[in-house]
Amino acid sequence: MGLFGDTPGPVRQLDSASRPPLADRMRPRSLDEIVGQNALLGPAAPLRRAIEADELRSLILWGPPGCGKTTIARLIAGSTRASFLPFSAVLSGIKEVREVMQQAAAAKRQTGRRTIVFVDEIHRFNKAQQDAFLPFV
Predict the structure, then answer these.
(1) pLDDT digits (tens, 9 = 90+) for 52-86
(2) pTM, entire model
């Protein structure tokens, strides 16, 4: 007998390789689907206007885990003519910083498109590692 008094039926196996995680399926797909950031992303808000005019330059997104920083960065890239390049400070050092920035510079030369380099967990870098970004910002 099952938890709710019913007879257990066949267990349906989900192929985890064919379905993305729930968080990815629930992720907003447009700036209009973002909840709770109207001061920045509402129809006439400053960040929204900069994104829509494709005039956004450097930006720091700060907040607790799971608040939407990566999602917003991906949506900005999708709403502009920029490509998106995620980068984890947890797994990287100065060598990787230089490589990813060279990759972005090469893409700019080849395609003319800017690259949004999204650095996740940048607070884990020490001062010297963070300073490696300065020539590119």
Answers:
(1) 999 988 888 888 888 889 899 999 999 998 988 98
(2) 0.75
Residue type, 40: L
Question: Which of 65, 62, 125 has its CA nearest to residue 96?
Answer: 125
Closest CA to 73 of 121, 124, 25, 120: 120
Distance separating alpha carbons of residues 137 and 132, to the nearest angstrom: 10
DSSP string, the chain: --TTSSPP-PPPPP-TTTS--HHHHHS-SSGGG--S-HHHHSTT-HHHHHHHTT---------STTSSHHHHHHHHHHHSS-EEEEEESSS--HHHHHHHHHHHHHHHHHH---EEEEEETGGGS-HHHHHTTGGG-
User: In residues, how long is the chain?
Assistant: 137
